[in-house]
Specification:
Blueprint: H1 24-38, E1 80-82, E2 87-89, E3 110-118, H2 126-136, E4 142-145, H3 176-191, E5 195-198, H4 215-230, H5 232-236, H6 248-251, H7 263-270, E6 277-278, E7 290-292, E8 295-297, E9 302-305, E10 310-313, H8 316-324, H9 335-354, E11 361-366, H10 370-386, E12 392-394, H11 397-405, H12 409-416, H13 426-429
Parallel strand pairs: 3-4, 3-11, 3-12, 4-5, 6-8
Antiparallel strand pairs: 1-2, 7-8, 9-10
Biased composition (Basic residues): 9-21
Protein name: Lipoprotein
Region (Disordered): 1-21, 50-103
Length: 431
């Protein structure tokens, strides 16, 4: 659950202090922790029946899938301004990872995906910080944009959230200045090869949140996201800012639902939009991804917490909950200890697969200063530690989906049979 905060301070939201099990992630975490106590050493991991591997979005074995939009006409080299001038098409994104098919016996790269929920450039400048950090370490990240972060508060009545009053939201609307700074970061992030996905709009959780939404209501939320991001010039009146250099309908191919709620109906809703993946799953072990309902399922993952005493999800809020019971301003005397615990957990999860199955590592965070910003500082260290290692590729979810679609279904199936720490004879897996 979330609470509203003053938009003047530039904060998106805060966890409610001093309350336990207040968010769906936490409830999911509790359930997963119980499960972890009875599954020893990640043996015999269960896979969903719906996770049948597929070669590509186009159905051709080994083709680098690019979704339904791949059949569109080739780019003629000219910038096409779209709609009211808020967006434009400037050709295929430059610098994207080019997928390749593994050769027999080849060890897979170690993919790491850093993703961010909300993507607002606020007074703390965390969006720009991580965009610049990604550039410094030759990484790409996924920034999940919240649609109302490009909608002025004065125009909030344009938002009709499912099951909630017109104009309402569980988060604060941005200031006019923050809309301007966010637009600039979106432009730079895209030009530097990062992915722009969606975190939808009003960030509703719990009762009447995404978990209660029908397929039609999810489609309404998605359509409104597109409307807000494609008509920001109309809605803001800004004429001194150039069009964003990308087409949202081409580039947005996945997202993460607030509080990880509502994936079953969301998966049904997104089929007509040609999306490639969904990152809304409430969690799973560190195993190679599979598809659900024809799209890649990229869940948060269970990592070793406190030197392996238990497993917790790979997101800052879950560290916050376990370390300070959800209090965003816990005991400052413990900040250094908690920061190191967070780094150690991320690195333990990374090392388990880097020296083992090479399953991708997914990390999902928020631009927040919880507990003195220790979770941001932890990510800084992890990016520097892992993105510089041999064989590691820090990529976006979109790039990972492209790479997975280029692999043989039989190879993906064998990869998914590996336990996280299992280091196989790759000649028996990739063949």
């Amino acid at each position: 659950m979330t609470s509203r905060t003053s938009p003047q301070r530039g904060r998106r939201r805060k966890a409610r202090a001093g309350r336990r099990a207040t968010r769906p992630e936490v409830l999911t975490l509790a359930a997963l922790l119980v499960l972890a106590t009875v599954v020893a050493a990640f043996l015999s991991l269960a896979r969903p029946d719906s996770a049948t591997p597929t070669a590509s979005a186009g159905g051709r074995d080994g083709a680098a899938g690019k979704g339904p939009r791949a059949s569109e006409e080739p780019w003629d080299g000219r910038t096409k301004v779209l709609g009211d001038g808020s967006t434009s098409y400037t050709g295929p994104q430059k610098g994207a990872l080019k997928p390749w098919r593994l050769k027999p016996g080849e060890k897979p790269p170690q993919f790491v995906v850093f993703s961010w929920d909300g993507a607002l450039e606020s007074d703390d400048h965390l969006f720009s910080h991580y965009r610049e950090l990604a550039k410094e370490y030759h990484a790409h990240m996924t920034f999940f944009l919240t649609g109302i972060y490009l909608l002025p508060k004065s125009k909030k009545d344009l938002y009709h959230p499912p099951q909630h009053p017109v104009g309402s939201a569980a988060i604060s609307y941005p200031t006019d200045e923050h809309i301007r700074t966010t637009l600039e970061q979106l432009r730079l992030a895209y030009e530097q090869g990062n992915e722009i996905g969606t975190h939808f709009n009003g960030h509703f959780c719990g009762a009447k949140g995404g978990g209660d939404w029908s397929v039609a209501e999810w489609k309404s939320e998605i359509d409104q996201f597109y409307s807000f991001v494609e008509k920001w010039k109309t809605n803001t009146g800004y004429r001194d800012i150039p069009a964003l250099p990308f087409d949202f309908k081409r580039e947005v191919v996945g997202g993460r639902a607030p509080c990880l709620e509502g994936q079953p109906n969301l998966l049904k809703a997104i089929k007509s939009y040609g999306w490639r993946y969904d990152a809304s799953s409430p969690g799973d072990f560190q195993i190679w991804p599979a598809k659900k309902n024809g799209v890649w399922d990229f869940p948060l993952q269970m990592l070793p917490y406190e030197n392996g005493k238990y497993q917790g999800l790979s997101m800052d809020f879950n560290f916050l909950y376990n370390q300070s019971n959800g209090d965003t301003h816990g005991d400052p005397a413990k900040y250094a200890q908690w920061e190191q615990q967070t780094v150690d957990s991320y690195m333990a999860g990374f090392n388990r697969v880097y020296y083992g199955s090479r399953a991708p590592l997914f990390i999902g965070n928020h631009f927040e200063d919880w507990n003195g910003g220790i979770y941001m500082k932890a990510i800084d260290q992890v990016v520097k530690n892992v993105c510089t290692k041999k064989g590691v590729k820090c990529v976006s979810f979109k790039e990972l989906a492209d790479w997975l679609d280029a692999q043989k279904p039989s190879v993906l199936e064998r990869l998914r049979s590996l336990d996280p720490a299992q280091s196989p004879d790759w000649s028996t897996v990739v063949r």
